[in-house]
Amino acid sequence: MAGTEITYLEAIREALDEEMARDENVFMMGEDIGAFGGAFKVTEGLLARYGEQRVIDTPISEIAIVGAAAGAGHMGMRPVVEMQFIDFIANAYDMLTNYVATARYRAFLPCPMVVRGPSGGYVRGGPFHSQNPEAGFIHTPGLKVVYPATAEDAKGLMKAAIRDDDCVLFFEHKYLYRRIKGVMPAGDHVVPIGKARTAREGTDLSIITYAATVHKALEAAQRLAAEDGLSVEVIDLRTLSPLDDEAIFATVRKTNRVLVVHEDTRTGGIAGEITARINESCFAHLDAPVLRVTAHDIPLPYAPALEDFVLPQTDDIVLAARRLAAW
Amino acid sequence: MPPRRRRAAEGPGSPHLGELLDLERKLGLYYWMRLTRTLEERLVALYRQTKVVGGLFRSLGQEADAVGSAFALERRDILSPLIRNLGSMLVKGATPLEILKQYMARGDSPTRGRELNIHFGDTDRGFIGQISPLGDMVPVMAGVTMTFKMRGEDRVGLVYVGDGATSTGAFHEGINFAAVQGLPLVVIVENNGWAYSTPTSKQTAAAQFVDKAIGYGVYGEQVDGNDVLAVYDCTKRAVDRARAGEGVSLLEFMTYRRKGHAEHDNQSYQPPAEIERWAAENDPIDRYVRVLLDREKVEQSALDAIDARVVREVDAATDAAEASPMPHPHDALLGVYADPPAERPLWYREGADVSGLGRERAEGWGTWDASKQETR
């Protein structure tokens, strides 16, 4: 409904609903997505509207879910499949990286499909309901990866993902599901894959981030403006593969100081890749080394005191930004 | 020979669909088996001349299982072969020229040099190429046949796995999901005794693979995989069941792998007497020749004519394949995604140019056409 504020979760549901209504080739598979509406209720109501043929409850079989989506995609369908928690995508790693990602290149077989699921921490989910496994898939040619931070982008990117001719991994941040709201633009709201967004304009330093930490970066930017008089730019990547090099390099050339923030663990995380690209292409524009604020390299623990220590917090971003500004 | 097994309800009196084939189709089965063997023998010669770029995989002694099963499908049906199903692919319309170009990694091979051996497919002709992680094609074919069911299409899927692949998670998840959904899918377990060097006794504690059908709640049948008419009969009934909406079947074909996993493999782990016995007593082509000559009263000259035709076809294909071009190196950049259609070369390969490389693949096969790049 135009003009009404809806949650990040409702925005995803609205996108699924609109795309299923628009294109009869769109269908869904997943565990408990039908009568129950999914573990987080993202697909609630869709079974009643579209029936069991298009909202398919599956066995607990991530390999079969992803593999069947690929096969249906070859035949011209546009499957959207749910990992009940994105942590379980590990079970389908072979199918995604060996089969799906290579299908177009090696066999000219299209896999127009979306693999979506609740991701990320800050929710006391423990080691198997909190993960951010995006880095392994960003490393795989043939896959696209998106990870929205706002309700508007959640809807618009989902619609783009469903219409994309290749496989898109759609990470949904479960901390944002019901905490973030937005008013959907009127009409057919599609956000292009591969384009970052400037979440806040600034001139002194840039924070490049995505998903839940976009909101922490914005909080930090506000504090740094109030307490330090610093003008901080925040770039929300939105798409992690392919990366929007143009937007990254533009903000480096503008502020000359860059902090990369992500909730994923540090070693092998995407911050390393972004830093390398800046180093290769914008070295002369840097006034300071690129710094990172990330999770510690630790499986995500359950207890609030432990989880909060391991994950990046607003205070960490403020601290790192001050060091960067003072370099 | 292992016993033929059928569900009691079907009864021993049901007609043998293989024996009911007319003579023309029976000679067709012979042609495809002979073509498979002759083409592989030609590939061995090319391999020894180092013209085959990678490994070479033989289906010697398994031609009946591949040919007889694929013969039970219609053109609109889709199968997914294994490395020892060259015969299935030929029946489904793959050509010897494509196979030879593919093994020799030519630029105009079906995968333009991107993939090995018989790893290629064509959904128009009804075969989808396998990948190397075994069992993965079972879930994929579940998705293919799920589409048939959703669209109400009168089409059936068939997927091959080896005795080894039944140990994978993908096999289990795929056949279970297909069974639950009642999909029109035939799953064939080719039990050739060996998965690379591992015997079936180290693959499963089950007495026989067909027993797994009970666990999945699907129809199961075991058949002599070296009797091409029995293979056809068994597969055709499973295909008919799938077409009638009666769901998944699991068929176990009893056969034997007479060559190594690939040409490099010296089979040190296989008892030589076992290989010799299968070659002497249970070669599927020798057996079928006896059926044609003794029971069908086919003249030897008719079979000789087919053999000569096969050699002519393989000769012509070899000449054409050897004359075909190698891929242009820049072709490697094309077609990872639909959008963007080409990857950018890294800066130290500057100057790599993908324009003017022509079509990715023939119309209806490909997804991207370089000649249309500007109009995108």
Please outline what is shown here.
The complex is a heterodimer of chains A (327) and B (376). Chain A has helices spanning 8-22, 46-50, 62-74, 93-107, 134-138, 151-163, 212-228, 245-255, 270-282, 304-310, 314-326; strands at residues 5-7, 26-30, 55-57, 78-82, 114-119, 144-146, 168-173, 181-183, 197-200, 205-209, 232-236, 239-241, 258-265, 291-295.
Shape of chain B: globular
Largest sheet of chain A: 7 strands, mixed
Strand order of the largest sheet of chain A: 3-2-4-5-7-6-12
Largest protein-protein interface: A-B, 44 and 45 residues
Query: What structural category arises from helix and sheet content of chain B?
Result: alpha/beta
Q: How far from one another are the termini of chain A?
A: 48 Å
Structure description:
The complex is a heterodimer of chains A (327) and B (376). Chain A has eleven helices and 14 strands. Chain A is α/β, with parallel strands linked by helices and 327 residues long. Chain A folds into two domains: 179 residues, Rossmann fold (3-Layer(aba) Sandwich); 130 residues, 3-Layer(aba) Sandwich (Rossmann fold), CATH 3.40.50. In chain A, helix 2 links the parallel strand 2 and strand 3. With 376 residues, chain B is of the alpha/beta class. Chain B has a single domain, classed as Rossmann fold. Chain B contains eleven helices and seven strands. Chain B has a five-stranded parallel β-sheet with strand order 1-2-3-7-6, sandwiched between helices. Chain B has a two-stranded antiparallel ribbon with strand order 4-5. In chain B, helix 6 links the parallel strand 2 and strand 3. In chain B, helix 1 packs across helix 2.
Topology (SSEs and partners):
The complex is a heterodimer of chains A (327) and B (376).
Chain A: E1 5-7, H1 8-22, E2 26-30, H2 46-50, E3 55-57, H3 62-74, E4 78-82, H4 93-107, E5 114-119, H5 134-138, E6 144-146, H6 151-163, E7 168-173, E8 181-183, E9 197-200, E10 205-209, H7 212-228, E11 232-236, E12 239-241, H8 245-255, E13 258-265, H9 270-282, E14 291-295, H10 304-310, H11 314-326
Parallel strand pairs in A: 2-3, 2-4, 4-5, 5-7, 6-7, 10-11, 10-13, 13-14
Antiparallel strand pairs in A: 1-8, 6-12, 9-11
Chain B: H1 23-48, H2 63-70, E1 78-80, H3 86-91, H4 96-103, H5 137-151, E2 157-162, H6 169-181, E3 185-191, E4 194-195, E5 198-199, H7 212-216, E6 219-224, H8 228-243, E7 249-254, H9 272-281, H10 284-295, H11 300-322
Parallel strand pairs in B: 1-2, 2-3, 3-7, 6-7
Antiparallel strand pairs in B: 4-5
Helix pairs in contact in B: 1-2, 1-10, 1-11, 2-8, 4-11, 5-6
